[in-house]
Amino acid sequence: QKLSLCSKLCFAIGGVPKEVAASATAFFLQIYLLDVAQINAVQASMVLFIGKAWGAVTDPVVGFFITKSGWTKIGRLMPWMVGCTPFLMVSYFYLWFVPPFISGRFIWYLGFYCLYQTLITCFHVPYSALTMFLSTDQRERDSATAYRMTMEVLGTLVGAAIQGQIVASAHTKKHCPIHNISAGHLGNSSGMEIIKSLLHSQDYLSHSKEVYMIAAGVIEGVFLVCTVVMFLGVKERDDPYSPKTEKQMPFYKGFILVMRHGPYLTLTAAFLFITVAIQLVQSNFVLFCTYAADLRDHFHNIVLTILVSAVISIPLWQWFLERFGKKTAAFCGITWIMPFTVMLVLIPNVVVAYVVAVSSGLSVAASLLLPWSMLPDVVDDFRLANPYSKGHEAIFYSFYVFFTKFAAGISLGVSTLCLEFAGYDTGACKQPAPVVYTLKLLIGAAPVAFIVTGLMILVLYPISEDVRLRNKVCLDELR
């Protein structure tokens, strides 16, 4: 089942809107909640953690309902993606809207973030499982995954570009009066009150709210266009892995079988830690550039540099994994980021920041491409070990997202709480020394520790290139 270039591109374009929105929220939601919506750090951490945890819980729930879904004229997975898109656009817009009331803002953002996480799950779980219903050929699936990852990294780039360029004016130095630098040296409360009033002036806040809503509206348009392109250009094929005479296994029995499959557990655990590391860097990067490295005027361009490097290097990693194997590519690509994040913490100047950005883009690309390229191999290995079970693709993909998303939610909530305990001052242009030190730990030491742990687990991953090719031959015989 050869896939046309058009089919691969349309499939890949379908993954763009999710990554555009994910990039915008990963880089900017934390600083938006703290400095524009002006909820305190404890409330912000609860929004981030509960929202991520809720999104994680919805993954297996959506996976369960997908396994129960029947086939329609447009497939089994496509109705989920098309049906949830309009509601997803509405929830995303209100996530970036500041309500006129103050006392209930925490409930507002928690509610819309949980709603957004639910709807994005209804889109992403069927989309990621769609890989297994494009073709039975491993090369075709790997090629489609490479196209998908290239477009998703491009979507991450577009999201950061749209959000960063539109909202950059809400976080630059021109909103910070010069005399605020000496705020800590003012001995009377009236001086501090004057500075606070300058920082939180109505003009500044109105401008900040407006630019964030404009960015949200643009990203809504991306959702609509990309979903329509995917719907028109992708043909979903019926389950190609099982004889027509097979009976579908109950969800809970399939879940137990999946959770007992060693390669799946190893791959999920390894990339769980690696994903947490990347999430920590993403969510704290803007805060680090703003308060710990004096790069607030450059952060949006540095983010774009990271993502441009990632987009360019996706084809490189696709060639590398075909030439040397996926496991080797994972080790080489993900290890690359560790010395450079440490370098940025130790030498926080503009030149080093751009060098680190280019180098980090290589690892970001590898961390995005490799798990989604290796997961179909795990599904094939499971299929060979359980030749008379069917319809478990959604379980594999939904629980992989569940574990990684839940761990990322915990890490984001804990990191925001660390800033609160360190004394984070909402809306201030200069943060206390403990906050600066905490940001350096969250950007440098913590991600390195998580990446090392993930790579140590990945050593145990049993599906080598020889095993993968053997599985391919055996599955062809089974079919």
From TrEMBL:
InterPro entries: MFS_2, MFS_trans_sf. The chain crosses the membrane at residues 46-65, 77-95, 107-134, 211-234, 255-278, 298-317, 329-347, 353-373, 394-422, 442-463. It is found in: Cell membrane. One of its GO terms (biological process) is carbohydrate transport. GO terms for cellular component: plasma membrane. It is a multi-pass membrane protein. Its main location: membrane. The keyword Metal-binding does not apply. GO terms for molecular function: sphingolipid transporter activity; symporter activity. It comes from the Eukaryota. Keywords: Cell membrane, Membrane, Transmembrane, Transmembrane helix, Transport. Pfam families: MFS_2 (PF13347). Belongs to the major facilitator superfamily. This is MFSD2 lysolipid transporter B, sphingolipid. It comes from Tetraodon nigroviridis.
